[in-house]
Amino acid sequence: MDFTYPADVAEFRAEFGRYLDSEEMAELVRQNHAEDGWGGVAAKALWRKLGADGYFGTGWPEEYGGGGKSLLYLHGFNYEMGYRRLPVPVVTLNTVGPTLMRIGSEEQKQAYLRKILLGEIEFSIGYTEPEAGTDLAALQTSAVRDGDDYVINGQKVFTSGAHHADYVWLAVRTDKDAPKHKGISILIVPIDADGLEIRPLTIMGGGRSNITYYSDVRVPVSALVGEENRGWQYITTQLDFERVAISPIAQLERVFDWLCERFREDGLPSTDAWTRATLARMAADINVLKVMELKVASMVANGEVPVYEASLLKVLSNEFRVTFIGEVLQMRGAAGLVQKGFPGAALDRSEDTLEKQLRESPITLFGGGSNDVQRDIIATHGLGLPR
Amino acid sequence: MRYSDSETQQLLRSTTRSYLAAEFPPERLYEIESGESPLSSDELQKLAGMGWLGLIGPEPAGGGGLGLLDAAVVIEEFGYAAVPAPVAFSNVAADLLARAKLGDSARHLGNLTGGRQTYTVSESTRASDAEPASYSSPTAVAGRLHGTLPRVPFATTADWVLAPLTLDGQPAFAAFALDGARIDETHLLDRASYADIHLEDVRLDRATILATGDDALELHDRCDALVTALSLIETAGMMQRTLELTGQYITDRVQFGQPIAKFQAARHRAADLLMQTETTRWAAFHALWRFEQDPTDSDEIWLAKHWAVRAADRVFQVSHLLHGGVGVDIEYPLHLYTQAIAAFAVRGGGMSEMVERTLEGLDLTPRR
């Protein structure tokens, strides 16, 4: 066992943190806080700046223009961004990029990888459908070969980011007669393709997601990623970067640190037993989440696959999050319910409100695989229980 | 950064595991637990012979010279095997003796690591547990010792106990000889060996003063931190075995025509059991590592115990729920683990103490 955080990664984080807090970045950061972290014009401008300054690729291999550093750099990058409530193009950087590196055609690598690292292009994920959520492999959107093209028909929901992305990373059924996991492929679809319609789906947290409709959308065969009908494998095995990229702790620590600052300003009432006990419990929980987050990150960086460990971190951190925000609201009282833009709204320095965080918090319970599925993964892969 | 055993740790773990499995089969553990035949001095001598009672003592003094994390791996295996031996406490004593500046601590350490005498330490009583009114902390006035050390682990077989002392009104830290004290054996929930140690007008020279003043406070703090961290790790070993027993049981147990491990409700509870176990374990090792890096930083130890106290409750409930009646049969090993896990959650500083220590660590002192 060695829990020493590598000095070079710590140095990178400190340097990157100073960069984000610098005068030079202040306006971009402010615009992103105003945009509320869901992507858009300000996010794109920030990503281009980060890409141009070389911050996107530190954990990518050198042959694709990256810095060739340990994946812990990626974790550090995500942590520093998350702690400041700045948006990260998670899908583009951690799903699309790494998958293309492994199985993309030479043409695709040339067309996309460099632009991704420069923050010039953004992908949206088109997986979920009205009848295919947790059971994703039941997806029905079809792509049929017609000469040198695929013709796509169907509907996707929660195509987040589609309204400002350049491409959809689309999961389609290419063989309707095969078992459901063996007839899925991945296509790269330009967002401005004829027949692709995007409609907004406003969500509880205040951000926008989308419903996307595909009516005889044509893409060339060269849009196929990897091999036909092996899409399910690509979806489920390209998780390393995603696992290490997600830093649920940064956001929680930001709120907890803010809360502690409030108590340092106002004083922690010695007679408020509930607040004292709850605050101590929060600190203990966050400590455990930090320790486990570093376990997952270090495993990935060491070339190990944290199958159930990543699920464990996900379940613990997002169940904690929902409870935690609720309890922070209790500590701040009804004033914490006031929305941004109204008198007395309690904003942290990233212009975030507690009530908005509570509205956002349920997403993580199911996003990226529901906690119930994660617990099954833990039971099977962590404990070896029969399915 | 690597969250897995080093080669040294793998070797320590496998040696300890196979030795304990061979020397302490379930039948022997049941005898110890029931009080029918406690851990014998012969068994204790063998453990000393393996070097496990003084793993952390410096090598020139005959100690094992191991770092805290390496020693912790051995202690974790004692938890895994449910062998109630004073390994954690003896090692804390070795660590404290190696740091003591006063008294004949080198001779004590040599006796400890050489297996000639056995040592234990008292656990934290900072949270003012509900003690009998007649119990008071040890004091020395005019060369005479008075006071009580309640529920000292393994005091019935130890020769010495290390504990704080008020010496002529000043803080001190001492090793008390047990043959001059009244030892009242007492049984706790976990059925390990404990005793109340009563010092009733004992001559002060029956104790070795190891430190006074700030040095004594430092040793006391270190004692509390190390006992807590190493007990946490021993408990994590117990939780791990509880998890394995439970996973095996629900895989083998058939009801409604299938292994109950196939029912999602049972799977999810088992997943929770695993999560509580792993998090307790890694929080404990991480905290011990932090403390080894910086002995003034014990914050993570209290945070880890705060988590572990709650995890202990979950592990206790879920493992028994999934085992059903089999789990409470005293000829099945689960109770050896769950009783000790539940006792750990209260011993040596329970939740109230962890809340206060954790808040101290957050340093919420008002800025104005």
Layout of strands and helices, then pairs:
The complex is a heterodimer of chains A (387) and B (368).
Chain A: H1 7-20, H2 23-34, H3 41-52, H4 72-83, H5 90-103, H6 106-117, E1 123-126, E2 142-146, E3 149-157, E4 167-173, E5 184-190, E6 196-202, E7 208-220, E8 224-225, H7 231-237, H8 240-245, H9 248-266, H10 273-301, H11 307-332, H12 354-360, H13 363-366, H14 371-382
Parallel strand pairs in A: 1-4
Antiparallel strand pairs in A: 2-3, 3-7, 4-5, 5-8, 6-7
Helix pairs in contact in A: 1-4, 2-3, 4-9, 5-6, 9-10, 9-11, 10-11, 11-12, 11-14
Chain B: H1 7-23, H2 26-34, H3 41-49, H4 68-81, H5 87-99, H6 105-113, E1 119-121, E2 139-141, E3 144-153, E4 160-167, E5 170-177, E6 182-187, E7 193-203, E8 207-212, H7 213-252, E9 254-255, E10 258-259, H8 264-293, H9 299-323, H10 334-344, H11 351-362
Parallel strand pairs in B: 1-4, 2-4
Antiparallel strand pairs in B: 2-3, 3-7, 4-5, 5-8, 6-7, 9-10
Helix pairs in contact in B: 1-4, 4-7, 5-6, 5-7, 7-8, 7-9, 7-10, 8-9, 9-10, 9-11
Describe this entry's structure for a reader:
The complex is a heterodimer of chains A (387) and B (368). Chain A has 387 residues and is of the alpha+beta class. Chain A has three domains: 7-88; 125-229, Butyryl-CoA Dehydrogenase, subunit A, domain 2 (Beta Barrel); 246-382, Butyryl-CoA Dehydrogenase, subunit A, domain 3 (Up-down Bundle), CATH 1.20.140.10. In chain A, 48% of the residues lie in helices and 14% in strands. Chain A has helices at 7-20, 23-34, 41-52, 72-83, 90-103, 106-117, 231-237, 240-245, 248-266, 273-301, 307-332, 354-360, 363-366, 371-382; strands at 123-126, 142-146, 149-157, 167-173, 184-190, 196-202, 208-220, 224-225. In chain A, the strands form two sheets. Chain A has a four-stranded mixed β-sheet with strand order 1-4-5-8, with helices on one face. In chain A, strands 2-3-7-6 form a four-stranded antiparallel β-sheet, with no helix packed on it. In chain A, strand 2 and strand 3 (149-157) form a beta hairpin. The longest helix of chain A is centred in the last third of the chain and has 29 residues, at 273-301. The mean pLDDT of chain A is 92. With 368 residues, chain B is α+β, with helices and mostly antiparallel strands. Chain B folds into three domains: 7-113, Orthogonal Bundle (Butyryl-Coa Dehydrogenase, subunit A, domain 1); 119-216, Butyryl-CoA Dehydrogenase, subunit A, domain 2, CATH 2.40.110.10; 225-361, Butyryl-CoA Dehydrogenase, subunit A, domain 3 (Up-down Bundle), CATH 1.20.140.10. Helices cover 51% and strands 16% of the residues of chain B. Chain B contains eleven helices and ten strands.
